[in-house]
From TrEMBL:
<dbReference type="InterPro" id="IPR000014">
    <property type="entry name" value="PAS"/>
</dbReference>
<dbReference type="Pfam" id="PF08448">
    <property type="entry name" value="PAS_4"/>
</dbReference>
<dbReference type="InterPro" id="IPR035965">
    <property type="entry name" value="PAS-like_dom_sf"/>
</dbReference>
<protein>
    <submittedName>
        <fullName>PAS domain-containing protein</fullName>
    </submittedName>
</protein>
<feature type="domain" description="PAS">
    <location>
        <begin position="13"/>
        <end position="79"/>
    </location>
</feature>
<dbReference type="InterPro" id="IPR013656">
    <property type="entry name" value="PAS_4"/>
</dbReference>
Length: 164
């Protein structure tokens, strides 16, 4: 094997290692919404191994996900090669993962932001999309606590008192 070929193999190896260990969920889906890639974040939070989910549909693995709704979100990603976003403020989570900080965290489930991105093949077509799942639980919890304090402060000022 030439030095350039060996360097390419080594580079590919550390790229795959990075995708498996990054603290972001990464899932690759085909047009039938079958799972083609499932990284370590997803394995850790779902309890499902990549070998258990590969080639199964997202909807068979997570029956709570509405196929029609998800299909509408994914359609422009496949057809227009644009990104689509699912924000925790609009929908707290897509994957009902437990909050992995049950002692320090105040939320039962992981709040998530999700980005769907087209994966353009060498032919220029989009046959796969990636999903990146970001844990937004700390931000969501902080925002909810701030809003609760603002409500308390407003109620106290209406009564003429001070909440502090």
């Amino acid at each position: 094997m030439s030095k350039d070929a060996l360097d390419d193999v080594l580079e590919f190896h550390w790229i795959i290692d990075m995708l498996q260990t990054v603290d972001v969920g990464i899932v690759v889906l085909d047009r039938q919404f079958r799972v083609k890639m499932w990284n370590g974040f997803m394995e850790s939070h779902s309890g499902m191994l990549p070998s258990d989910v590969r080639d199964k549909t997202l909807f068979s693995l997570f029956p709570d996900i509405n196929p029609e709704w998800f299909g509408q979100k994914a359609k422009p990603v496949f057809e227009l090669k644009t990104r689509a976003f699912m924000l925790w403020e609009q929908r707290p989570y897509l994957f009902k993962f437990s909050n992995y900080r049950p002692i320090t965290g105040t939320e039962e489930f992981m709040y998530q932001n999700i980005i769907l991105s087209p994966l353009v093949s060498a032919t220029g077509k989009v046959e796969h999309i990636s999903m990146m799942i970001y844990d937004m639980t700390d931000i969501a919890s902080g925002k909810k606590q701030l809003e609760a304090l603002q409500v308390l402060q407003s109620e106290e000022s209406e009564r003429g008192g001070s909440p502090f």
